[in-house]
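Checked the freezer inventory, then went back to the computational side. Two predictions to log before the end of the day. The first one is the construct we discussed on Monday; recording sequence and tokens without edits.
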Amino acid sequence: MLDIDYLEDEVFESVEEIVSKFIVEIGDQKIKIRITKDAHGHFHFVNSHYYQGSKQADPDIAYIANFPSEKIAIMNAKLQIVSSYDPEDKNGVWIENDSF
């Protein structure tokens, strides 16, 4: 992989390298996971969908960033997906992440 420093420029607010991508399936929903690394060496994740159970006012969305490793970022992406998912909740819905 190229060094991310080659993209450093004063006009860019941030630069992140995509280090891995995954597609997982839960119930009948496919969810994409993207792991990135910033110029400071921190890892981040973003999921394509969030789950909102019928008794939740809003979907659970993790805003934690700057993970020290790719593995920890992946584990947190998984946690965001499975922590609120309830296969018995017939009125739960998957909300698309517009920022993905």
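The second is the one RB wanted added to the comparison set:
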Amino acid sequence: MFVIIFVMILGAAGGYLYLAQKLDNQRKQILVLSKQNEVLKQNIPKGSRTYGSISIRYSNPTYTQGVTKENCKIYIAPLDDSPIILKIERPTSVNVLFKGDVLNSTWYEISIPIKSSTNSKGWIKDSEILFNTSTAAIENSNG
């Protein structure tokens, strides 16, 4: 009988030590993550804007195709501080899907004709895209 009680106490003590060690590891992990979070918060630019609600006024673009300028950036959303999903070094032909007016700026949603569908669509500022005006009349008459 004494042996059974001793084994039960020993098992309970072992279980307690095991769970105490797991709890201690979790506390250490929370401290490390908290410190990493603080470092990341400090890396956020001070001038970053926070937006209440944003309205995008979509319209059909005048042109369905265009060419990017050199060293242009493709954004995930039509905002200047939006993450950049792609940087295009050379002039590249693109398909123009939509035109959007956001915060007094004009942007174009484009797709890039590449084999992969990953990062093949995004937003480009109107100042970063060129259009062939001679094809606009043909496109508009066919549309």
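For RB: The beta strands are 57-59, 65-68, 72-75, 84-88, 93-102, 105-111, 121-125, 129-130. Confidence is low (pLDDT under 50) at residues 135-143. Let me know if you want it refolded.
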